[in-house]
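#lab-general

N.A. 3:47 PM
ok so I finally got the sequence cleaned up, no stray characters, all 452 residues accounted for. can someone with queue access submit it? mine expired

B.Y. 3:52 PM
send it over

N.A. 3:53 PM
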Amino acid sequence: MISLTDRKRVQVTVNGRELEVFDGLTILQALLQEGQHIPHLCYDIRLPRANGNCGMCAVELGNGSDVKACHTPIKAGMVITTHSPKLEAYRRVRLEQLLSDHNADCVAPCVQTCPANIDIQSYLRHVVNGNFQAAVRVIKDRNPFPVVCGRVCPHPCEAKCRRSLVDSPVAINHVKRFAADWDITNGPWLPRLADKTGKRIAVVGAGPSGLAAAYYGAINGHEITVFERQPHAGGMMRYGIPEYRLPKATLDKEIDVIKSLGVKIVTGKALGTHIRLDDLVRDFDAVYLSIGSWRATPMQIEGENSEGVWLGIQYLEQVTKGVQVKLGNTVIVIGGGNTAIDCARTALRQGAKSVKLVYRRTREEMPAEKIEIEEALHEGVKMVFLTAPTKITASEGRKQLHCLKMALGDRSDAGISAHTVVPTTGELRGGSGPGRLRAGDWDAVLGLRVQE
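B.Y. 4:20 PM
back already:
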């Protein structure tokens, strides 16, 4: 392979200046080596249009001809013009042609990935300029809970951040949390309310969906009343996220902002028990139902309804309400998502001495956030991988978890899951070999079905 240092140098004239360049290259390659800029899109690996099709690198030669610099070999004695009014006009036309079939506005990958499509670049720019309140205004245009999301959002935007092409992604979620915390501490920004419309809206459910509807409804001038069956507003933000991840006092501050807009929140009122849909339809101009998804998905294994076996969402709800759940000293958690991690770490905080998390794949396939997994391990949660529960039995007041040992299979062509798993041994009812669970050692089982 011949390196540049092995090539001879030849003399050319570029924009009226004598220049020595390497021979055996194209005009574009040779001039780029010497720091001479020629507009081009040829070498951008993110663009499908390559191999000279862009036409942006056109240059003029001394004989009056126009050529593509990426295709034309450099030769001794060439007279080359890279910038002129004629070339600029041509490049402008070529750029317009390239954009002629561009069927949408350019949106950054982080914004496209954000579930709320927040204008991330704008609020990052405001934070850089020290205008934290303006950043919060941008966020709340699409999301009324920046304080909450700054603590619990899995920030998929960062995985798509273009800064990764240079070094590492921008810490988008931490910046959002900083701006939101500054705002709530220094007197929260309140949006300007539209003129009163005289319309009354009933919202059933004070979770994130219902409170978001109340927030934007109040901004647009409507009178909003929210009915909530739980003792406090917040829905899954309150009853599904542990205190150590989202302090309830912090959540209340953000809910208070919504109340300050004139939103009325009536708690302890369940649809079908204390209020009827027919009555709401009669008394209000519109009804928004945001009753949530409180029914946990069962594991569908024998014994899951036994005493001492909790579905994850139910367990977290009871802990938040201050119910003393009797776990005992040893606890098994089934699953690999964020809720499973929340259950395991909460069980430790509730006094369990030993907590094991059982997951049917490996750590690499766990859907939980990587930082959550790391912190759970740091706190003492033990993880047993490639193990799938088949049934739960009881003997002498102790739970017995029967499992199958698993092995990763081939990647799925259907794209339903990253990997499939196949059983490789019989039920693990005892023994202390690799990957085996001893039966009869567990006081409580916290289970949830992994959705994939």
